[in-house]
Write a structure and sequence with these properties.
The chain is of the alpha/beta class and 360 residues long. The chain is built from 13 helices and twelve strands. It has two domains: 159 residues, no CATH class; 167 residues, Collagenase (Catalytic Domain), CATH 3.40.390. Probable zinc metalloprotease. Keywords: Hydrolase, Metal-binding, Metalloprotease, Protease, Zinc.
Length: 360
């Protein structure tokens, strides 16, 4: 293992900048918010630690990139920010996210609520789910894993055409594996920052994907017809677990962060770190380091305390004493499934520590 450490001065400059105008902008932030962000360069901080590389296959070791401090983010001419006219994040579900309609509908509602809290102040809207056939995308059976895959680039083209007028971005989510081109094995997701569109798959986040008994393997692999989408009529979806939901929330917010112009973080342990594999993705925290938090706050304009409180509310929104998977009937007669949030509890404790610093 190798720990990536930066000097206090480097972290201070990445957060605040040496540009007098950006320094002045930072000094105008609420004093309590600055107290939290200054934890970035406090050596003894137990809130924000250094990045730890576990092998040469980890992202930073294998993908050298120039680091992006706040000044580089702020001055990036290609960066897009929400406006009064384009202030909504749209989520487009492609295929089913669960093995029943109720589970699929609840899952995408949980993702919507999480994005509303994470990108606090923006509107998040759900589009009507569409089957794979509606996208007219290419698809295949992966030669190694024997599971169905859909073409990520074709999905992006479909989403671009569907992007509503008031959309800052539109993101597709699916439980079907993705591939970007014939020569690639798979991809977790793909986005076009210029067009404000992205597609992300949660297929490999189920606990059984890499097992020999994975039920999503096509029983009799054969080259499917490019126009026969019947293979997706009963494709396999993993059981909805707390870990699956956590991984899905992490991927969705990481990739939407890129659409806001946040590059991979190389400063501190952070949601915006790159990841080459599932183990590395699991090690990433759920939230942003102070440097990336300042970037997102600049783009969206939220109050940090209100954002953290919204994230805690999202975790606490369900009754803790309701057994997981037990349907609940709301006042309108609709059936609601309790959110499986056990995997978020450690993160909730971390948020409470952050709130304690800000509200000191």
């Amino acid at each position: 293992m190798k720990t990536v450490r930066h000097s206090e001065q480097s972290l201070r400059t990445a957060l605040i900048s040496k540009n007098p105008a950006l320094v002045s902008q930072y000094e105008k932030l609420d004093a309590a918010e600055r107290r939290l962000m200054n934890e970035a360069f406090r050596p003894a901080s137990d809130l924000f630690g250094p990045i730890v590389l576990h092998s040469q296959s980890d992202w930073i070791a294998s993908h050298p990139e120039p680091p992006q401090g706040f000044e580089e983010f702020f001055s990036d001419p290609s960066r897009k920010t929400p406006s009064r006219e384009k202030h909504s994040i749209y989520i487009q579900c492609i295929g089913s996210l669960g093995n029943t309609r109720i589970i699929s509908e609840e899952y995408v509602k949980w993702l919507k609520g999480y994005c509303e809290a994470f990108f606090y102040g923006l509107t998040v809207k759900l589009l009507e789910p569409v089957p794979v056939s509606a996208t007219q995308c290419a698809f295949r059976v992966n030669e190694n894993t024997k599971n169905l895959q859909i073409h990520a680039g074709h999905i992006l083209h479909f989403l671009k055409k569907k992007k509503p007028e008031d959309a800052f971005c539109i993101v597709g989510v699916t439980m079907i594996d993705l591939y970007p081109r014939d020569s690639w094995n798979f991809v977790f997701g793909q986005a076009s920052l210029t067009d404000g569109v992205g597609i992300f798959s949660f297929a490999r986040y189920g606990g059984d994907f890499y097992s020999s008994s994975y039920e999503g393997k096509v029983k009799a692999p054969q080259r499917p017809s490019s126009r026969d989408y019947s293979a997706f009529d009963s494709y396999y979806t993993p059981d909805v677990t707390s870990v699956l939901l956590l991984r899905s929330c992490k991927t969705l917010t990481h990739e939407i962060g890129h659409i806001f112009g946040l590059r991979h973080c190389q400063w501190l342990a952070c949601l915006m770190q790159g990841s080459n594999h599932l183990e590395e993705a699991d090690r990433r925290p759920l939230d942003l380091c102070p440097i990336c938090l300042r970037k997102l706050q600049c783009a969206v304009g939220f109050n940090i305390v209100e954002r953290y409180k919204a994230l805690v509310r999202w975790i606490d929104d369900d009754s803790a004493d309701t057994p997981r998977g037990t349907p609940k009937h709301g006042p309108d007669g609709n059936v609601n499934l309790p959110k499986p949030v056990e995997a978020f509890e450690e993160w909730r404790e971390w948020i409470m520590k952050c709130l304690a610093v800000v509200q000191k």
